[in-house]
Amino acid sequence: MSERIVVVGAALVDDGRLLAARRSAPVELAGRWELPGGKVEPGESADAALVRELREELGVDAEAGGRVPGEWPLKSPYVLHVWTARLRPGSAAPEPLEDHDELRWLGPGEIWDVHWLDQDVPAVRQTLAHLGAAGGLTSSGPGSSRPGAEEVPGA
Ligand SMILES: Nc1nc2c([nH]c(=O)n2[C@H]2C[C@H](O)[C@@H](COP(=O)(O)OP(=O)(O)OP(=O)(O)O)O2)c(=O)[nH]1
């Protein structure tokens, strides 16, 4: 029997930008970018895990929104679920306290400027579609960079 363990990743959005975090460990993931988050513990809800992980890793007071539809396989036995999240009023700004050595807030035209973990690319793409449908971020995918495409002239 194979047991799956859910890793929750946060699509933390603030002021129309998505937070990306560069992993500092383990060595095979170091230097690549991900959605901050971590493993859901036994008996813990996914949204509670997300809030806990964001507090531990980034020092922020966040609240979970909704789950982005989909599930992405990571190294067995892990699977990635993505939840939208936002900072609560009065939260500290995120800092790379644990697991990461750099953070970047990415605007709609910058999403693919960072070297996401390979396994995160489809999750990020789906997250953008989800956020775009909700009136949030929009961006074209990796390899289809169209500078300025998201700018709507003449408003
Ligand atoms: N948080 C997160 N982990 C990811 C992503 N993509 C990806 O492959 N992973 C992997 C890295 C790790 O092997 C695993 C999650 O581990 P973690 O180290 O972030 O979780 P954690 O804080 O609960 O870990 P732990 O040190 O307490 O055991 O999933 C992602 O976008 N976000």
Structure description:
This is 8-oxo-dGTP diphosphatase. Residues 134-155 are annotated as: Disordered. The protein has helices at 46-58, 121-133, and strands spanning 5-14, 17-23, 33-34, 37-39, 62-73, 78-87, 100-106. The protein is an alpha+beta fold and 155 residues long. Strands 1, 2, 3, 4, 5, 6 and 7 form a 7-stranded mixed sheet that branches. The longest helix is centred in the middle third of the chain and has 13 residues, at 46-58. The chain starts with a strand and ends in a 22-residue tail after the last helix. Bound molecules: 8-OXO-2'-deoxyguanosine-5'-triphosphate. Residues 7, 9, 29, 34-39, 53, 74-75, 78, 80, 99, 117, 119-120 line the site of 8-OXO-2'-deoxyguanosine-5'-triphosphate. 8-OXO-2'-deoxyguanosine-5'-triphosphate binds at residues 7, 9, 29, 34-39, 53, 74-75, 78, 80, 99, 117, 119-120.
Write a brief structural summary:
By secondary structure, the protein is of the alpha+beta class. The chain has helices at residues 46-58, 121-133; strands at residues 5-14, 17-23, 33-34, 37-39, 62-73, 78-87, 100-106.
